[in-house]
Amino acid sequence: MLDRVMLTNDDGIDAPGMKVLEEIAAKIAREVWVVAPEHDQSGQSHAISLHHALRIVERGERRFGVTGTPGDCAAIGLCHLMQDAPPQLVLSGVNRGLNLGMETVFSGTVGGAMTAMMLGCPALALSQAFVRRDAVPWDTARDLGVGTIQRLLEVGWSANAVLNINFPPIPAAEAGPMTLARQGEGAVAGMHVDTRVDPRGMSYHWLNFKRGDIQQGPESDYSAMRSGKIVVTPLRYDRTDDEAYAELATHLPRFGV
Q1: Cystine design at 113: which of 8, 125, 223, 243 (Cβ 3.0–4.6 Å)?
Q2: Termini Cα distance of the chain
Q3: C-alpha torsion angle, residues 102, 211, 167, 4 (rounded to 10)
Q4: Alpha carbon distances (Å) from 9 to 17, 207, 208
Q5: Can you give the CATH number for the domain in which 64 is found?
Q6: Is residue 204 part of a domain?
């Protein structure tokens, strides 16, 4: 059992996924700290607040709401609130909805975990896929979360990676085993701008993803999810494209070579 873990998310401190994560964390650690956004911060990726002050709202014993992004929360928790007694693990989630493929770039759930990793703490991002927004199968993450995390702690992973975990949108008893997969292309096929007019006659705009049935590779996270697996994908900050690098190297000199 771990001595201390810290929890964050991007859906906000009052989100149902945070309640699930607190239940999971209580079974793997003696001391659970929550440092999460006061409000929904979905889509904030790894953003941190450099141009406005952050406020911390004490919500109870070892529970803190932060007026910022998941990245802000990771920094506030690790570099301020828990500076003298750091956690052994940061858990980010449980997100309402999957975080696979290209969407991991935009995900605040992944961003919070990545910021924690950058600050030297092992981190996991956890997400619960669903078919209907009004019927998220939280029991799947609740029932499978403890065993999944414990197994990954036993195996261990690189200090330069965050493990991105996605639970399938089916009952826990029907979920396949924990399966390693690569980040796939994802389902993002573009973006849509929805323009509306407010009561004062002024235009305002909503951004939304367009999604499509994009062909995925055989080892992709989306393919594993469609097979009903618990999907684990290691993610890192280094986004160097090796194929493009090799091609450009035939035309440009390489530094240090």
Answers
A1: 125
A2: 47
A3: 50
A4: 8, 21, 21
A5: 3.40.1210.10
A6: no
